[in-house]
Write a structure and sequence with these properties.
There is one protein chain. With 578 residues, the chain is an alpha/beta fold. It folds into 5 domains: 77 residues, no CATH class; 143 residues, no CATH class; 161 residues, Rossmann fold (3-Layer(aba) Sandwich), CATH 3.40.50; 38 residues; 116 residues, no CATH class. The chain contains 20 helices and 13 strands. The protein is elongated. One of its GO terms (molecular function) is ATP hydrolysis activity.
């Protein structure tokens, strides 16, 4: 805008006359709209109409609207500063996803004109967690088409970046979603971007927002009350500080009945953890000067249910599982300490295959170094050790120490012990360590106070084999499986149809079998499988391939058993020769 023209236009107006705002001088309009004089003269000559009044009124209206918006923003900013309260939630908190999920189901997400579509990949258990049949997902061969089934799952629509207003319990809230640059930290120099949610309400107290967040949290927990959440350490390349936990997945809680372990042992473990998690236990531990921590060691052959028991315990007590792999090459002792310090008040920390981490004192190398030092000292005393040999020996020892320091990575035994029960370590967690070889563990790691209970898992017993068979073929819903008939000209469809028919018949025989008949079949199956030779996982894997055909499982278990045992004997001979 040329303000010099505007000043000249007002100065050239007749002296003593008041300017008419609805009909500004041509020179003034020329300052705002370049070329206005030529355009207005052309319209006046052609149409005989002076557009000065319309243009002047438009400019005045524009100025009024612009100034009103500016004043409104200033007034609202002052009102928001002194008369409104806000609570912020960043994307690193679990509450962030819960708020977005709750907002997506509100009316404001359905009527808003600025939405973000999020593809719901869903879980393997379905969008609603049910296992209902869907006939439309079957093609003409009777094969389940996952693409057709997943295509019917609509995306979730959530508010996009910006401000959105909604009402909850007769109170107005403002939902603001924004993105900002993440601040760097000493542990993670990568910046990146992070999303931020701001919830605002009228009033100088944040209590209404806190009540809303508590309601959203309860709503989210109610939806996942039968789910177990699994968390792992956050990656260092995500721009977040070390020591944070990421939510990896959630799965339906595993019933304790599905764990192949002696019932008395399971009852003993559940009672021990239940007493430990009781609200009165922390004070009891504190008054007696005992650290409020509990540790368990599950040991036994692979496939005997050590990890399964951990998940079942998490489902019973409603705890999240925090899994740590000590074999992670980028995991340092300081990271491990921060991970333990960032645990919630109550949780289960799972350290799987603790024996593979190599957390042992290197007694052989220490003894070897001592022997070398003694040999050097003897040779020096015998005066048969030249200066050149002495320099070479010193250089060799220094080189070995240097290589030892370079190879020394990850978490040491002392670092793990300090994280488990150090002075500043976290209290209130349940630590579960699993191993296939308890004899390889250092005594300092499994001493009382760090491991309070050791649970031995054995290969499948007779009762466990029987229970696995009954659990595999029992029908919890007491509903017959629908028979599907499918025909096709192709050989693939014919083969599929035959397979579906046989599996359906087997399913009908198995799923509709009376409990007495099922128990008799389970007894026959348990007698055909040797006790203490196969793991529960191996038996379950065999039955899974015949999960709807119990009679077929009885007919083929003998050949399968012989083949597995023969393969184990060959493997044992090879290992013995090596």
């Amino acid at each position: 805008m040329d303000f010099s023209k505007l000043r000249v236009a007002f100065n050239t107006s007749e002296k003593g006359t008041q300017p008419n705002l609805t009909n500004l001088p041509t020179n003034v309009l020329e300052a705002f709209i370049p070329g206005y004089g030529l355009i207005s003269k052309f319209i006046l000559d052609i149409f005989g109409f002076d557009i000065g009044i319309v243009v002047s009124a438009g400019l005045i209206l524009f100025a009024v609207v612009t100034s009103s918006i500016f004043l409104w923003k200033k007034a609202f900013s002052l009102f928001q500063m002194y008369c409104m309260s806000s609570v912020f939630v960043d994307d690193g908190d679990d509450l962030f996803d819960s708020v977005l999920a709750w907002i997506a189901e509100q009316r404001m997400s359905k009527i808003s004109r600025s939405l973000k579509a999020v593809t719901r990949l869903g879980t393997i258990y379905g969008d609603k967690g049910d296992d209902s049949d869907d006939e439309e997902a079957l093609d003409e061969c009777g094969i389940f088409n996952f693409g057709k089934w997943a295509a019917k799952l609509p995306p979730r629509y959530e508010p996009y970046f910006g401000s959105h207003r909604f009402w909850h319990k007769n109170r107005l809230f403002i939902f603001d979603r924004s993105r900002r640059e993440r601040q760097p930290s000493p542990w993670s120099p990568n910046r990146g971007d992070e999303e931020l949610i701001q919830l605002t309400c009228v009033g100088r107290s944040t209590k209404p927002i806190k009540d809303l967040l508590n309601y959203i949290k309860s709503w989210s927990l109610e939806k996942e009350k039968a789910m177990t959440v699994i968390r792992r350490p956050a990656g260092k390349d995500r721009g977040r500080s070390a020591g944070y936990w990421d939510r990896v997945s959630s799965r339906p809680s595993r019933p304790m009945e599905t764990v192949s372990l002696d019932p008395e042992q399971k009852a003993k473990i559940v009672a021990d953890i239940n007493e430990y998690l009781h609200p009165s236990s922390p004070r009891w531990y504190a008054t007696r000067g005992i650290p409020y921590r509990r540790g368990y060691l599950f040991h036994g052959p692979p496939g005997t249910g050590k990890t399964s028991l951990s998940f079942a315990l998490a489902g019973i007590f409603g705890l999240d599982i925090f899994c740590i792999s000590l074999l992670e090459p980028t995991l340092t002792e300081s990271d491990l300490n921060r991970l333990f310090n960032n645990l919630p008040r109550r949780c289960i920390v799972l350290l799987e295959d603790i024996d593979t981490a190599g957390l042992l004192r290197d007694e052989k190398s220490d003894k070897k170094d001592d022997d070398e030092e003694v040999s050097i000292e003897k040779r020096k005393n015998a005066q048969d050790f030249s200066v050149a040999e002495l320099a070479k020996a010193i250089k060799t020892v220094g080189h070995k120490e240097k290589n030892s320091d370079e190879l020394k990575q990850g978490v040491s035994l002392s670092g793990l012990l300090n994280a488990i029960d150090g002075v500043a370590t976290h209290e209130g967690r349940v630590l579960v360590m699993t191993t296939n070889h308890p004899e390889k563990l250092d005594d300092a790691l499994i001493r009382p106070g760090r491991v309070d209970m050791q649970v031995e898992f054995t290969l499948a017993t007779r009762d466990q084999i029987r229970n696995i068979f009954i659990r595999m073929y029992s029908n919890e819903n007491d509903k017959p499986v629908k028979q599907r008939s499918s025909t096709s000209k192709s050989s693939l469809c014919n083969g599929t149809a035959k397979q579906n028919t046989s599996s359906t018949n087997g399913s009908a025989n198995g799923m509709n079998a009376k409990p007495k008949m099922l128990r008799e079949m389970a007894d026959r199956f348990a007698k055909m499988v040797p006790e203490g030779r196969l793991s529960p996982a191996e038996i379950q894997g065999f039955l899974l391939t015949r999960k709807k055909e119990p009679q077929r499982a009885l007919e083929e278990v003998g050949r399968w058993k012989d083949a597995v045992l023969e393969a184990k004997e060959r493997k044992a001979k090879v290992v013995g020769v090596q």
